[in-house]
């Protein structure tokens, strides 16, 4: 299933063409394509029906911070591990490596407004918190409602809307995290 016209409208509003961003940032498109193929930069989050790769506007931020493609993975690993420690989680090298490869898929650019290691950790933490709260709903408990509202609101601030058709029907299934962990809890428990 290719992107629908509704998907393309969403993608054009939320993302930028990789070639345009390369021009803006002074990167040679063929070089960037080679870095993507070598697993040094993430894959595009979307590819339009005409073949145009689309990426988040901050696509090159980690590369710029690293100072070159050779150290991008190390910078990602350092920031991911530091964010995990700050969140109270000890992570091993296997988890960091798994998250690096997930980052390289381009899907974090799909779901996060700013696909940084810190927001990846935050999304995981908030997802776990909301799922735990929803397993044992207590809608008459004010503290439970407040905890759910706060976590849902925080996730809402960092998560993108997702494409209306492609993400929900092909990429992630019918219930993307926004639907399950933001929109549905708000509707079910009247939290806004």
Main attributes of the structure:
about 190 residues, mainly alpha, three-stranded antiparallel beta sheet, about 5% strand, globular
Task: Explain the layout of strands and helices.
Layout: H1 5-14, E1 16-17, H2 18-25, H3 29-37, E2 46-47, E3 53-55, H4 61-66, H5 72-86, H6 93-104, H7 107-111, H8 117-135, H9 142-158, H10 166-171, H11 177-189
Antiparallel strand pairs: 1-3, 2-3
Helix pairs in contact: 5-6, 5-8, 8-9, 9-11
Class based on secondary structure composition and strand pairing = mainly alpha
Strand content: under 5%
What is the helix/strand order? HEHHEEHHHHHHHH
Total strands = 3
DSSP helix fraction: 55-70%
Strand order of the largest sheet: 1-3-2
**What's the average pLDDT?**
95
Descriptive report:
The protein is mainly alpha-helical and 192 residues long. It has one domain. The chain is 62% helix and 4% strand. α9 runs antiparallel to α11 (177-189). It is globular.
Compact description:
The protein is mainly alpha-helical and 192 residues long. Helices cover 62% and strands 4% of the residues. It is built from eleven helices and three strands.
């Amino acid at each position: 299933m290719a992107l629908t016209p509704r998907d393309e409208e969403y993608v054009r509003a939320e993302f930028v063409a990789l070639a345009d961003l390369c021009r803006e940032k002074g990167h040679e498109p063929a070089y960037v394509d080679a870095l993507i193929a070598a697993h040094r930069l993430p894959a595009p989050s979307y590819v339009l029906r005409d073949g145009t790769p689309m990426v988040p506007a901050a696509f090159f931020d980690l590369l710029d911070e690293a100072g070159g493609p050779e150290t991008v993975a190390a910078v990602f690993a350092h920031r991911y591990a530091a964010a995990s420690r700050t969140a109270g989680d000890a992570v091993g090298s296997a988890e960091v490596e798994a998250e690096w490869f997930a980052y390289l898929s381009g899907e974090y650019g799909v779901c996060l407004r700013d696909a940084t290691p810190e927001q990846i950790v935050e999304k995981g933490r908030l997802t776990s918190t909301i799922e735990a709260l929803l397993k044992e709903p207590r809608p008459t408990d004010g503290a439970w409602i407040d905890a759910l509202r706060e976590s849902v609101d925080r996730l809402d601030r960092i998560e993108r809307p997702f494409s209306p058709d492609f993400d929900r029907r092909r990429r992630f299934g019918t219930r993307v995290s926004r639907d399950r962990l933001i929109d549905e809890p708000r509707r079910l428990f009247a939290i806004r």
